[in-house]
Design brief:
It is a single chain. This protein is mainly alpha-helical. The protein has one domain (28-121). It has helices at 2-24, 30-41, 51-56, 63-68, 85-91, 110-121. It starts with a helix and ends in a 6-residue tail after the last helix.
């Protein structure tokens, strides 16, 4: 009886895993998920004429300009949110003076950070 219970539990776990993985890895859309975050929290500084643009050269007005990065180099490494500079500055894993969004107490909400991280980890697609 114990072996049968373990077998049933193992089969159920295997059968349910793909469904859980699908939910956890649902594709993040640049247009529908990422762009609204950029619009609400980044564009006031990171567009031509903005303070962030003037200091770094990061223009976030389009997918292409975001992927181009700053005058110092790319800020997104598709497939790798941990080493992507954009995620590092948003999570505060850099010097406090460049934590983004600049001047925002408490920083970006965790759920918004997770959306950005998933998008980068999924290849930072223009979708």
């Amino acid at each position: 009886m114990k072996n049968r219970t373990l077998l049933v539990a193992a089969v159920l776990a295997v059968l349910s895993y793909p469904a859980l993985a699908t939910v956890a890895q649902s594709e993040i859309s640049y247009k529908n998920d990422v762009l609204p975050i950029i619009h609400d929290y980044c564009l006031s500084c990171h567009q031509p004429g903005g303070k962030g643009y003037e200091k770094s050269g990061l223009n976030m007005t389009s997918y292409e300009s975001l992927m181009k990065g700053t005058k110092f180099g790319a800020v997104i490494k598709p497939g790798d949110s941990f080493t992507s500079i954009l995620i590092q500055v948003i999570e505060g894993r850099v010097h406090a003076s460049i934590k983004m969004p600049f001047g925002m107490d408490g920083g970006l909400a965790k759920d918004k950070i997770e959306i950005l991280k998933k998008w980068v980890n999924q290849g930072a697609k223009n979708n």
